[in-house]
Design a protein that fits this description.
about 280 residues; MetI-like fold; mainly alpha; 13 helices
């Protein structure tokens, strides 16, 4: 019997609809303002574009071609950093979680709890030390900063992968060993396909974090050579600190668009990945 009555379901629908409106409203305001002139954005940011305030795609073109640093280069750097970081996190943390749970030694347990503890350490506590360390180790390029992201993304990823691995019966791994598979073959041919939903779930969460991250690239990368999309938007200023609000709104939409598309296409896997370790067996 369904424990929630029809009236309860109706109130829940209303509640979550209101919450959805609250979350979507800021994005809708930014989208509307991306087609308005800068003056109208400053004076009437919540009004619909009119014949006098509508500028079409002018803000998007102005944002893309603004300044001496091309926007497509920032998109390229953000894409490279995101792909390498997420790929490194998925591969290393899934293998680490599988090893720690299957070996189940004191050292593995200690390392696992250290990964969990890292989730509660604020980034602001280590950002200055991290910036100096990354500079000394020459981790200040788009090809090397994924190593830094691996350290900060390992805690949540290991936690999610461990929950999934606990639900995988060890019998299928033992059967693979009997058939002649070594540990690497067992992981890549047997364990990894079972964790597909968790891989997608972790990939989406980490992609949203790395793509939208501003502080870490700002501290680590050389901004005269490399700019990610959030940094590019922050420096979208004219003379005397004047900000082109129309171009800023347009670039924010362009920054959000890839993540929104990815989330819409893969959202069902997020719930499956989180719940995959909820029931053991």
């Amino acid at each position: 019997m369904n424990p929630i009555s029809r009236a309860g379901r109706w109130w829940l629908t209303v509640l979550f609809s209101l919450l959805a409106i609250v979350w979507v409203a800021p994005i809708a305001v930014v989208l509307l303002n991306s087609f308005k002139s800068g003056t109208s954005i400053a004076l009437t940011p919540f009004e619909w574009p009119t014949a006098d305030t509508f500028v079409g795609w002018q803000n998007y073109l102005g944002g893309i071609y603004h300044g001496d640093y091309p926007f497509y280069l920032s998109m390229l750097y953000s894409l490279v950093i995101t792909v390498l970081s997420v790929g490194l996190i998925l591969l290393c943390t899934s293998m680490a979680a599988w090893y720690m749970l299957r070996v189940d030694s004191l050292l593995c347990k200690l390392f696992y709890y250290l990964c969990i503890f890292s989730m509660v350490v604020p980034f602001q506590m280590v950002m200055f030390t991290l910036s100096k360390t990354a500079d000394r180790l020459t981790l200040d390029t788009p090809l090397t900063i994924p190593i830094v992201y691996l350290g900060f993304g390992a805690g949540l990823a290991v936690f999610l992968f461990a929950g999934c691995i606990k639900s995988i019966p060890p019998d299928i791994e033992e059967a693979a060993n009997i058939d002649g598979c070594n540990p690497l073959q067992t992981f890549f041919l047997v364990v990894m396909p079972v964790m597909r939903s968790t891989y997608i779930s972790v990939a989406i969460v980490q992609t949203m974090w790395v793509w939208n991250d501003y502080l870490l690239p700002y501290l680590v990368l050389d901004r005269t050579q490399y700019m990610t999309v959030p940094i590019h938007i922050q420096f979208l200023q004219g003379s005397y600190g004047r900000v082109d609000y129309g171009a800023t709104m347009a670039l924010i939409i362009l920054c959000l668009l890839p993540i929104v598309i990815l989330y819409v296409l893969c959202q069902k896997h997020i719930i499956q990945g989180v719940l995959s370790g909820a029931v053991k067996g």
